[in-house]
UniProtKB/TrEMBL annotation:
Belongs to the bacterial solute-binding protein 2 family. Keywords: Periplasm, Signal, Sugar transport, Transport. GO terms for biological process: L-arabinose transmembrane transport. It is found in: Periplasm. It comes from Vibrio ruber (strain DSM 16370 / JCM 11486 / BCRC 17186 / CECT 7878 / LMG 23124 / VR1). GO terms for molecular function: carbohydrate binding. This is L-arabinose-binding periplasmic protein. The keyword Signal applies. It comes from the Bacteria. The lineage of its organism: Bacteria, Pseudomonadati, Pseudomonadota, Gammaproteobacteria, Vibrionales.
Amino acid sequence: MKTIRKTLAVAALAGTALLSASAHAFFGNDDDTLKLGYLVKQPEEPWFQTEWSFAEKAGEKYGFEVIKMAVPDGEKTLNAIDTLAASGAKGFVICTPDPKLGPAIMAKAKSYGLKVVTVDDQFLNAKGKPMTDVPLVMMAASQIGQRQGQELYKEMQKRGWNPADSAVMAITADELDTARRRVDGSISALKEAGFPADQIYRVPTKTNDIPGALDAANSLLVQYPNVKHWLVVGMNDNTVLGGIRATEGQGFDAQNVIGIGINGVDAVNELAKSKPTGFYGSLLPSPDVHGFKSIESLYKWVKDGVEPNKYVEVTDVVLITRDNYKAELKKKGL
Ligand code: GLA
């Protein structure tokens, strides 16, 4: 009997040790290192991978640990906040999979005393209005969109296209404010430059990825069989890439298509292709700055009580094409 009890006690102890060992492996250090989360909606986009890696650079600089988590939907987001709280994290940066989750995310974060900084996509409240009291780091959406329109027009002129048989395919995602502002900016710049307004066609994508944009673009292309040259507008590289793939599928030559994406880092494989495609280039903003600054401001908030600015707009942007993309990425350390 005595031996059995002893064995059980040893087993129980071993069990505890095992549990804490796995908790240790999962949650990282159990020393006093400060932990901060970085939650992103689409970890498959190099944009978000770049943010993560620059958040880690901030972690190295200031001595905190970054817990990187993928949150593709609402359920995973709320679960991630539970996990973060259980690990002892003090706050997180988030690019939400859906802006309307804002109030639920904030309620859960508050229940655990976690601080929140948003990046890229702004939260919306129950009335659909931006939650301007939550700190946000984002790109200058309208301005960068306008630049997309201006560069498209410039390239079209360089190629000597006749506006009469050219059209704009604008793949929209209006429920996402940053996407709406980018596309609206692009369209207004095209009109301003002189592109005929009634040859600018908008089509919504169901999902913010290449397959979604491809479907949207296909449905648009079949409606306008007489267009010879297409300009492709979209809120990011994947959206524009979907448009380009659709033109290829419907037999357009790369020479007759000009697409310019936004994000830059998501366009590297395309620009590296041995032959040019209709994807002419991409506007590279600053995922490095977004990743570093957002978590740096969270760190200072947690550590020193310094409240972050409510709104940080990142404006720098550079057009990368097949000719300069390697050099431009290198300049930013990407
Ligand atoms: C949105 C887009 C991303 C990226 C970021 C940049 O979240 O979905 O692809 O463009 O904005 O702010």
